[in-house]
UniProtKB/TrEMBL annotation:
Organism taxonomic ancestry: Eukaryota, Fungi, Dikarya, Ascomycota, Pezizomycotina
Keyword Mitochondrion among UniProt keywords: yes
Family classification: Belongs to the TRAFAC class translation factor GTPase superfamily. Classic translation factor GTPase family. EF-G/EF-2 subfamily.
Signal peptide (UniProt feature, chain positions): none
Compartment list: Mitochondrion
UniProt name for this protein: Ribosome-releasing factor 2, mitochondrial
Record domain Tr-type G: where: 43-352
SUPFAM superfamilies: EF-G C-terminal domain-like (SSF54980), P-loop containing nucleoside triphosphate hydrolases (SSF52540), Ribosomal protein S5 domain 2-like (SSF54211), Translation proteins (SSF50447)
UniProt function note: Mitochondrial GTPase that mediates the disassembly of ribosomes from messenger RNA at the termination of mitochondrial protein biosynthesis. Not involved in the GTP-dependent ribosomal translocation step during translation elongation. Catalyzes the GTP-dependent ribosomal translocation step during translation elongation. During this step, the ribosome changes from the pre-translocational (PRE) to the post-translocational (POST) state as the newly formed A-site-bound peptidyl-tRNA and P-site-bound deacylated tRNA move to the P and E sites, respectively. Catalyzes the coordinated movement of the two tRNA molecules, the mRNA and conformational changes in the ribosome.
Amino acid sequence: MVLRCIVRKYVHRTSNNKSLRSATRGFTLASRCNAPTAGNEVAKTRNLGIIAHIDAGKTTTTERMLYYSGYTRRIGDVDEGSTVTDFLPAERARGITIQSAAISFTWPPSGNHSWLSGSKSNEALSATPHNINLIDTPGHADFTFEVLRSLRVLDGAVCILDGVAGVEAQTEKVWTQASTYQIPRIIFVNKLDRDGAAFGWTVKEIGARLKVWPAVCGIPWWSGEGRLQGIGDVVGLRALRYADGGDGKDVLPSSMQQLEIEDARFATELKKARTALVELLSEHDDIMVENYLEADEDHLAISVADVTASLRRCLVSQDPQNVVPIFAGASFRNVGVQVLLDAAVDLLPTPEERPDSEVKIGAARGGLAKFLSGKLTATTLPDRAKSSSKAVSKEKVTYALQNLEACALAFKVVADARRGVLVYVRVYSGTIHRNATLWNTNLQNMERAQRLLKMYANDALDIESIPAGQIGVIPGLKFARTGDTLVSYTGSHPKSGPPAPINALQLRPIDVPPPVFFVSVEPSSLAEEKHIKECLDLLLREDPSLHVSVDPESGQTHLAGMGEMHLEIARDRLVSDLKAKARIGSIEIGYREAVSAASEHVTEVFDREVSGRSSKAAASASVEPAGDEFVAAQDDDTHVFDLADSNRLVVSMPILDPNGSSTSEEETSLPEHLSLTAILQALQTGTSAACARGPMHGYPIHSTQINLIFSPAKHIFPNTTLAALSSAARLATQQALKDSAKLTETAMMEPVMMVTISVDEESLGAVVHDISSARGGSVISLGSEDTSTSSSTTEIDVNKIYTPPDPFAGEHFSLESFGSSDKRAAKQIVARVPLKEMVGYLRHLRSLSKGRGTFTMVVDRFERMSSQRQRVVVQSLRGDYG
Ligand SMILES: Nc1nc2c(ncn2[C@@H]2O[C@H](COP(=O)(O)OP(=O)(O)OP(=O)(O)O)[C@@H](O)[C@H]2O)c(=O)[nH]1
């Protein structure tokens, strides 16, 4: 009916309908010409992620994918701890995924082109083998950063929902993050074999909470007794019956004619679903309207290829995504996974179909393609660099870019017990060849890729190269960390690397959130110290959201992270996997200290023998509270750097050109061996080290501005080294911090979290009361799905969403009452709450909400504590409760 109206509008809009029809045919032909050929590897690649709420079934589904594609001989079981992707002992023990595992497989399997014989048209992309690089992402809120880190290398994602729990808080969060990266998604509604599974309800929730139109492509096929016997393929207009208790390979397809005889009611539902699907697609894709006209306005007569192509267009070219294909199944019962795999190949984009990847060069941000064409740097170099003798000319940039062989992002580092440290990379341009020298633009060092691997489930295959669009592994690198950009460049200088601007290229950079919890790590004996340091270095390479600092006064090492679970896992990894003999303290909140008064300038001299050579330098520093409205002086002699924890470093120095020569006659130039860039870097390192420990309580410094005055004549001596300069800057800053604290005590700051709680209506009042009175939180919004964090602005009328009935869902899930009455976890509370009050909150929430409430939280900001609150915290830290 809706489609009829659209058709009328459409025909009206088109003055010459015939010409449009022929244009459409042209399109179809063109898209067929673009279909991947045997030689077109990139077009036959899908870099996929699986995203979902914890326990929705990601690992269970992944195991089936590996099994059906022939990479494993038996299906791993999460509950038995025998899965391939949850490979860390800690993950297996807890049954949750911690680190993203990236594995490759082929779908459909080579030599066996369709898993359902005779069912696939040769036109379908999923009729020929494709290389799938699958990145399994963790579902726990503490690992959001890990999710983000893997999201940035994905081209498409499968979002798995639990068909009993529906859309959960974490799903919404990851959904929003995927929207930020413009990642096209399909949804798999899993666990439909469970009692109380509500497929229709979940589909409505998808529309209401994720703000996207559900295009139902698969519907559950329940027996009269409520057993999930198979699924209805809405696109292919057939029913797939799965052998009861089998491994999912024994699937019997039934055509519509057969289904009319077998289960007439389900046949009618399948037709209804097909009609709804065509209607929905026509609202978002003009070519589908054309297909409908060509099919004589018969929803069922439109070919499988045309419906698939329309779904693909909606997914690949729409931003924001406002249609999401929905598939149904139960991976634990081995139902529906092959259909999902076909959909991933047929619908999700190839690496080449993705928008240009974001890059950063210094302060400039833009697209990789723009950078490679030389346009990004030419327009964004700072004026000073442009005018100076060292400025990078446009010609030099063009020449430099010609020699760029490849650039890649190290998106994950894993210490594998058998293979050593593995660096997972995604190549964004060019090809990395075996033995290539790789310049790390973050660490500014060079390493050789002596071997390249492709990871297949439990096996690794040596390969000669990793081309653009592909994911591969470089074993044996000593330095590369998660998040580093690696560049292969012809004629790179072994020490200084490729020329500017390539030496500063950063692919898809992400901000690391501040750590809010920490533990102390103490070697159990002196002999262990070195080993523990190596283990911590490795942990940091794997996970840049962990931080290590050493308290210069007590010598104690602190390991900081983003959540309790995050640190628990790090602790297990350190002690159980890496066998570090260390005493780990209890998990504590990472408070901060902020200066309250401006100090005078203080000069400190560092004069010591380092490695047998005397080395001397001086630095002058003052500190003050960092106001929000800082306006950097526009003069050429001020350099401003944003440090961690909202600290700011302002270095004033005489006007020096990039060679270090003074441009003013009264000032001294820099000595030959110290470049301006290296000096500024050393000053940053020194001040950051000083900020690691506040003068009053020993917490890191926050919201503080450090002013350094640097003059070659006063601060540099004949034997000055960079290390001495850095130490002098540290000493001067530490003294300035102490001076400030003597004037007025530093203020303690605490992490305040943005918390999103989902509860049912019944428990809402109790939870809100608890948050705002007992926990000192402030409720920001309260409501139903309208308060969803989804970034999409699409208006969804849930009454217009097609859903099949939920005959076995239980009384709570009456589809007619959706949006009006009591529903599961449908009320959301968004509140700002101090982290201290959220420790152990899950147990409390469960008791307030009959076990049904869930919550997620992220750091919102650090806030100054009231003096009363500060007193309580300091007392409890001292163990003084009186
Ligand atoms: N009944 C039923 N149980 C399932 C299904 N899929 C997964 N499960 C169970 O749900 C639990 C969680 O499954 P996982 O595969 O570990 O879920 P996950 O999403 O990987 O969880 P995390 O790794 O912790 O994020 C396990 O006990 C599975 O056996 C299903 O289709 N039906």
